[in-house]
Every structure is written in C-alpha cells, then in structure tokens.
Design goal:
448 residues, alpha/beta, Rossmann fold, TIM Barrel, 7-stranded mixed sheet, 6-stranded parallel sheet, 16 helices, binds cobalamin, binds iron/sulfur cluster
Length: 448
C-alpha cells in the first residue's frame, strides 16, 4: 500500500499566508513513519509549501494529514484537493485539533474518510494493513448510514521502541530545520527541538494535551534519550536542544538519571526546557545546571487567584517566586508564560498579572491571548456563552482570520479564535493585551 503522511502548507485556502510559528520538524507524522517502518510498512512524509503540490501525491492510496487547530482550514482544503485529484484515495486526519472534534469533522467534511483520535502510531499501522476502519480502536469513521463509529484506543506504544536515528527522511529534516531561532529556547547555533515524553498530569482548562495523551505521562528512558542525543551531536554537530515536552521537569528519579547521563556533554551541548514550578527545587535545578541546562520557561498564566482557580492550574504565587529565585541562583536563565482572557477575568485581574510579571525580573516571557481549542473545557464554555460557533472551526475561522492575526500581534502570532472576557469587545481586549504586553516587555532583563 502506498502511504503518505502530510503536513499542510501554512496557508489559507486562498493561498495567502497563515503566519503561525513553524520552526521544527513535524514530529507527530515522523514518529508515525518511524513506527510504520519498524513494522515493515514504508511511507513518505511530505511537508507542503503550497496547495498546488497536491497533484504530485496522486499515486498514494492512503494519505494521513496532520493538523493543529491553527492549520485546520488548510488541512480540510488539502483533503478536498486530494479527493478531487484521486477519489479512491483514503484520507485520514489526525493531530491535536481532531481529538475533541472528530464527530463534527466527519459530519462536516465528507472528503475525510477517517479521523484518528489521540496517539496515531498503532491506528495508522492497522489502517496501512487494511484492517476495517470500524474495527480499529482510536479511529473514528463513518457508518453506511452516515453516523460516526468510534471506540477509544487504550493501547499506548512504548516510546523507547520508536527507532529514529536510522530514518533517512528524518535525517534530512534535521539538516533542514537545524539552526532555527526559537526565542530563548534555541539561539540558532546548530539546535533542534526534541520531545522525550508524551502527556502531562495537569488539567488546565485551555490545554489540548490531556485530550491527545489522556493525562498519562510516558517518558523515554534517560539512557535511550542520551544515546539519541549523542548520535545527534556526532552526526549533525548539534550544540543546542529545546525539549518541547509538556513538562520536561518531571519525576525526580528520572531527572537525576537524565542529568547524570547528560553531564558528559555539558561542555559542548546546552539545552532548554519547559517546566512547572511545582516540580522543581534547588537540588534538581543545580543538577540541571551542571548537566548543561541554560534556560527554563515556566507556565504561570495568571497572578490572579480567581483566574488561577478557574483555569485548573494548582500553583501559588509563592511557589512561582521561589522557583524563579532558585532557577536564577542555580545559574539558569528563566522565563515565564502568561495568558490573558479567561472566563470572568477582569481588568483588575490583568493588572495583578502584569504587576507580578514585572516584579519577577525575567530573562524572557510570553503573554498570549487564550486560544480556543476544540474539546477543551474553555472551548465548551465559549460555545455555551455564544462567544464562538463550532462552524468557525469547521469551515473558515474566524470570520476574518487575517484581521484576527494582525490584531493579535504581538500578543500572539495566532490565527484562531481567542476567548474575549465579558466587558470587552474583541478590539478593546486586544488593545488591552497589547498595552500590557509592552509594559511587561520593558521589565525584561537585557540580554547579556
Ligand atoms: C514543539 C511544539 C511546537 C513547535 C513546533 C511545532 C511543529 N510544527 O512541530 C513550535 C514552537 C514551532 C510550535 C508552534 C505552534 N504550536 Co505548538 N507545540 C509543540 C508541542 C510542545 C510538541 C509538539 C510535538 O512534537 N509533539 C509530539 C508529537 C509526537 O505529537 P503530535 O504532533 O501531537 O502527534 C501525535 C498525535 O497527535 C497523532 N497525530 C498527529 N498528526 C497525525 C496525523 C495522522 C494522519 C494521524 C493518524 C495521527 C496524527 O499521532 C502523533 C503520534 O502519536 C505541542 C504540545 C505537545 N506536547 O504535543 C504544542 C502544540 C502542538 N502547539 C500548539 C500550538 C497552538 C502552536 C501554534 C499554533 C502556536 C502559534 N500561535 O503560532 C504554532 C503552530 C505551528 C505549526 N504550523 O505547526 C498546540 C496545538 C493545540 C491545537 N489544538 O491545535 C499544542 C498541542 C500545545 C497545547 N497543549 O495547547 N509548537
Ligand atoms: S501543565 Fe501545561 S501541558 Fe499540562 S495541562 Fe497544563 S498547560 Fe497543558
């Protein structure tokens, strides 16, 4: 069976550019490719620049399309073009956008034959082997009467078993994406983004991670991870890594073993990661520093007690302060991520967050308007409150995506609907956000 895994172009269906950040390899479909290969099923990963490349895919019998919410319009459009070119091709969609939204996607888009929910490796293998779609756990498909058939996939793959380094196509992607700048995470000196785990125990109401990975954390073993890193150093002279795991700093035992494996590379390799303030302490941070860690970004979101409680993030401001202080003391640069625009959030709440962010004396920060991802609790709240409609996420979103994109900048370079709290119009909310973004920006420590 001829199978391709596709990343749609960062474009709207009319060909205009959708300027989402896009600096790294498409790991989701590369992982699926690696897994298929291990099971003797060859496949091609295609990263499209433009929609007019679709006719070059007409020889494939199955095409899997990956999508985030920000790129869903492009993914739907790819599916349409594929079916128009080759009606017998089976079109499968997967990725974070699909997880809480597979029924709606299948009902609205007849050009999509099936949607994979959550982890894609084993469902895609079964599809490639020709198993009936309606019998594959994790695959949503249409019954003959048009209703949607779905059974949950409880089988999770062993991450250590995805072979990566020997994959030629991935190697060419490493060459292509190496040395991209990614804020403080990657400075552009032979760096790559890696992910060493799947899942997060958190339950933040705005995040789509729990819907992809089911709230269960699985990690590569520190030894396997260190072997991969060593291969990257030797093969590509990698000097910098950004671990994009949801919460890289996890169980202390894993961190200890990982840091001891990494110490031997600390002279030539620096790394950064995301962390939760409730998972670090002075001892772990010292270990990380001596193993080459140079930057950690913590997700804080808000300094308002009310907002924190409503968003499901169980951390306190003292914990934040302590983690930031300890990180600096360990000699690691520190950044924090803030979000604005939650149900019930007022100007006073925003003021508190701004003041707290400034007081932390950070090396970097982000301050983004809360984006709405299908399936998340905040998405359901926004639907209930009439702030969004499902159609915006199914057809063309938002009503004028380019306006939203421009207006949101520099608060977030997104192109998808955001949550506008009561008491604001879309425009007044964005100007409030932009003003506070610049106020926080002025407090950021100069680059040394
Ligand atoms: C690294 C990362 C980035 C990097 C690189 C992104 C990239 N294109 O690779 C950077 C920093 C550039 C980035 C940018 C953005 N990101 Co980002 N990013 C991540 C992060 C932390 C890891 C992604 C990853 O590699 N995961 C590991 C792989 C293995 O998982 P996966 O891609 O989900 O794939 C698995 C399944 O989803 C499924 N699957 C995926 N595709 C397909 C396709 C088929 C056919 C099948 C069957 C299955 C399948 O199977 C895969 C293997 O099991 C995730 C959070 C997370 N932990 O996943 C957020 C995340 C993907 N990002 C997110 C967002 C919003 C963005 C931006 C839109 C931000 C912005 N405003 O610009 C941009 C979009 C860029 C783009 N065009 O792709 C959201 C997406 C939410 C959503 N519902 O859309 C996430 C989930 C964060 C979150 N928790 O909310 N991001
Ligand atoms: S801690 Fe981070 S990854 Fe985990 S649910 Fe919350 S926002 Fe998502």
């Amino acid at each position: 069976m001829k199978l391709a895994l596709l990343k749609p172009p960062d474009q709207y269906p009319d060909g205009s550019s959708c300027s989402v950040q896009n600096y790294t390899m498409p790991y989701g479909i590369l992982d699926i490719q690696a897994y298929l290969l291990r099971h003797g099923v060859p496949s091609q990963v295609k990263v499209l620049e433009r929609f007019d490349e679709i006719p070059t895919l007409c020889r494939y019998e199955v095409i899997g399309i990956t999508t985030l919410t920000a790129t869903c319009h492009a993914a739907y459009h790819c599916a349409e073009l594929i079916k128009a070119t080759n009606p017998s091709c089976t079109v499968v969609m997967g990725g974070p956008h699909c997880n809480g939204f597979f029924r709606q996607i299948l009902n609205a888009h007849l050009q999509i034959d099936a949607v994979v929910v959550g982890e894609g490796e084993s469902p895609m293998l079964e599809i490639a082997r020709g198993d009936p779609m309606d019998q594959i756990p994790g695959v949503a498909s249409r019954n003959p009467d048009g209703s949607v058939n779905f059974s949950f996939n409880r089988k999770r793959i062993d991450l250590n078993a995805i072979s990566r380094i020997d994959n030629e196509q991935e190697n060419s992607f490493v060459q292509q994406y190496m040395s991209q700048r990614l804020g403080k995470f990657l400075t552009g000196s032979n760096g790559i983004v890696l992910s060493s785990s799947r899942g997060c125990p958190g339950k933040c109401i705005f995040c789509s991670s729990p819907y992809t990975w089911g709230g269960v954390v699985r990690r590569l073993s520190p030894v396997v991870l260190a072997e991969r890193i060593e291969a990257f150093i030797n093969r590509f002279a990698i000097r910098e890594i950004f671990f994009a795991d949801d919460t890289f700093v996890g169980e202390p035992e894993w961190m200890r073993e990982f840091c001891s494996c990494m110490r031997k590379f600390a002279e030539k390799l620096k790394w950064s990661c995301l962390g939760r303030v409730d998972m670090v302490d002075g001892q772990i941070l010292d270990m990380m520093a001596s193993a080459g860690c140079r930057y950690i970004k913590y997700g804080i979101e808000s300094a308002s007690h009310n907002v924190m409680a409503s968003m499901g993030k169980n951390i306190g401001l003292e914990q934040v302060q302590q983690a930031v202080d300890e990180t600096k003391r360990a000699g690691i640069e520190v950044g924090c991520g803030f979000m604005v625009g939650f149900p019930g959030e007022t100007r006073d709440d925003m003021r508190e967050t701004e003041a707290f962010a400034k007081s932390l004396q950070l090396n970097a920060f982000s301050y983004t308007a809360t984006m709405l991802f299908p399936g998340t609790p905040i998405f359901k709240i926004a639907l209930r409150e009439g702030k969004i409609t499902e159609d915006e996420f199914l057809y063309w979103m938002p009503k004028d995506p380019k306006k939203a994109m421009r207006a949101a900048s520099p608060v977030s370079r997104d192109c998808q609907p955001i949550y506008v709290p009561d008491g604001f119009t879309y425009e007044s909310f964005l100007s409030e956000c932009t003003r506070r973004y610049h106020a926080i920006e002025r407090s950021i420590l100069p680059i040394t």
